[in-house]
Fold:
Amino acid sequence: MMRKPIVTAVLGALLLFLAVAAGRAQKLESLPGYVPIEELNLFPPDKLSVEVNLDGPLLHMVAAATKGDDPEFSAVMAGLKSIKVQVYPLKGVDAGAVKGKIGRAVHWLEGHGWQSSIRVKEKGDETYIYLKQTGDRIEGLTLLSLNPGDEAVIINIVGRIDPAEIGRLGKNLDLPQLQKIPARGGGARKPE
Amino acid sequence: MTRLNEPMVCEGALDLLETYLDGDLPREAADRFRFHLEGCRACAAELALAGRIQRELRVLPQPDCPPEVIERVVRTGRGEVVPFPSRSRAARLRIAAAAAALALAVGGGSLFIHLQRDQPRPEPSRAEIAQATRQARFALAYLGKVTRKAGLGVRDEVLEKRLVIPAARSVSRSLGGALSGPSAAAEPRKELP
Structure:
């Protein structure tokens, strides 16, 4: 009569072990806010003027490093799992093809449960901001921007996101003051 | 009495397929079945498939029936109530051990792969963290820049459609049409602070 509880306990412990192992093995790709930018194949990888790929461990270190100087920025970083940025210069490039790709990316986002937050089309410029929500929590933000004659951009931020906090930080940070951001292959973007 | 030329539907023909293959179909029904097959390629294909399956099943080796099953059938035939044998403790332990080994293999394997993936990554240097900080700030600043620009675009559009153009039209009307046309209507916008 004692056998059944023992077998149940052993199987329960094993299931718990499996669940823990599966939880530890959770990949960035499985997070709801993740967008497979490379798979969407928006811009040619060798022509990017800026490429940023920051993932969880590095972002946590950034959060730890900036905790004293900039606690607000640090708090935002601590909640993030990934930041990806791709900037593609459009000078001398047919923006029509890029426009089509951005349209397909927007379609992809809408087909994967992303909700449009900002959608502006003005004088050829297009800007889209999409949010991925799970319940009340925002777990992903994706920005797509097309500026014919200038550049096209995609930004994907994964993690615990407070758009107001990010907006406030973005407002306070000034692009020209930032130092050069290296692109793939050792290139660098000049401050605007 | 049914006749040969009386049509047979596919559903009826498929119901007779196994019986026909076994050779148990009465002659007249078999004739009608064959007559249907002559005009129905789908049923003919079904018959060919069923025939192939039957042939292949026949050439499979015949496994021996375990003696305890034979004994059980015989005893049941005699009218005896034969209880199902309970698994021995050793058998249960074997099953539990197999389940444990499987769970450990799957869980341990995924954990190992995960740890292996993390291991080659060296600890980032201070310079790398500083660079990452600049990149993160850049991403947020870029986001801020684009959203600001989009916000200004929305504001301008709303102001123009809802405020500037109606106000210009109103002024135009009050001046008796001295100002007219969309270009004139848009003029006052420049005077806005």
